[in-house]
User: Fold this.
Amino acid sequence: MSDTWSRRLAAAAVALMWWYEGFWCKVFPGRADQRAIVEGVPLLPAGAVTPLLAAIGLAEVALGVWVLTRRHPYAAAAVQTALVAGFNTGGLLFGAEHIPEPGRLVVQDVAFLALIWLVAGRNAEAGPAPAAAREAVATA
Assistant:
């Protein structure tokens, strides 16, 4: 497999993970466990749960698009790292009873973070995606 294809495949895997976690798990149709975790956040009004989940989900979808554009890959990786760490910390603090295997969650996310940083390094070497590719991602 050529380096270009392996780079694209790795970036697509990261983007798909964000799109799945963002759109499918939080926006439509949404997962009950993720809703329950957000409902457990102290001082969060009950009416804020759905808008907050939608905002988080759409931000995660946007992260997937950002990865595919290859723009500022190390900044993208830093933002992703902060969000993964923050979401996991919040989930474990406020909704641990809704996470069936916390150890598995942490191990999976360590692997995901390794892939995120691998993609960032490869995207930094390759440079930003051509304008036509960025436009295709933006209109998708």
Observations:
- The mean pLDDT is 94.
- The radius of gyration is 16 Å.
- DSSP finds six helices and no strands in the chain.
- The CA atoms of residues 22 and 33 lie 14 Å apart.
